[in-house]
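User: My instructor asked us to take a sequence, write out its structure as C-alpha cells, and then describe one feature of it. I'm not sure where to start. Here is the sequence I was given:
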Amino acid sequence: MFVILFMALIKTDRARLMEKQIAIVTAASLSLLLTATFIPSAQAAEASRPEPTGQELAFDNRKGNCLACHAMPGEPKAVTNTNIAPPLIGMAARFPDRKNLYAQIWDATRANPDTAMPPFGKNRILTDAEINKVVDYVYGL
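Assistant: Let's start with the prediction itself. The C-alpha cells for your sequence are:
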C-alpha cells in the first residue's frame, strides 16, 4: 500500500513538473509570436511616415522649436508672440554663407557662449540632415 501511494506521489510530482515545462514553452512561444507580429508592423508604420520638412522641424516643439524664441514675420503659419531672440527674417542677407547659419544652429555657443539658444547638433536634438532641412527652410525667410 505504501509503495502504491509513493508511486502516485512521484507521478503527481512528475505531472506537475511537466505542466510547468509545458506552460513555460507555451509562454515563450506566445511571446515570440507576438514579437514577430508586432515589431515588423511598428517598423513598417514608422518607415511609411514621411520625412518631416524643414518647416515642420522648425515648428515642432520636440525638435527645432524655433517659435519658442523667434518670430517669423514673413511666415503666415508661424503664430507666436515671442521676442526673446532675433526675428527670423532676411536670413540670406544676415548669413550670406549658408555654412554660418548651419554652424549657428548646430552650436550657437561657439559664436556666443552666453546664448540661450540650445546647441541643436552638439546635443543631438537634431541630426545633421534635420539641421540642413531647417537651414534650407530658414534661409528662405
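For the description part of your assignment, you could build on this observation: Helices lie at 2-48, 54-59, 91-94, 98-106, 128-139. Try explaining in your own words what that tells you about the chain.
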